[in-house]
Design a protein that fits this description.
4 helices; 0% strand
Length: 80
């Protein structure tokens, strides 16, 4: 057992900033999916909160798909 495992409850009890050091609290990471889910409850009043992250997801998936198709067309010897 390491000393950090033994003393981490003591550190968090006396120093609230030590929670970040022990990685107990992980802040939520922003992502397009999280933004879409949070905007779902405001869709009636603020439609743009779901429109723009949804469009960003759509464009990104479309771009990856088109790049993959282009690589397949250029690198596959069976298609030539």
């Amino acid at each position: 057992m390491s000393l950090a495992a033994i003393f981490s409850p003591l550190l968090t009890k006396y120093d609230p900033d030590a929670i970040d050091l022990t990685e107990i609290y992980q802040p939520p990471t922003p992502s397009w999916g999280n933004i879409l889910i949070q905007g779902k409850s405001f869709m009636q009043f603020a439609w743009w909160m779901t429109l723009f992250p949804g469009l960003a997801i759509f464009v990104t998936v479309l771009d990856y798909n088109l790049v993959g198709e282009g690589l397949l067309d250029s690198l596959d010897p069976m298609l030539r």
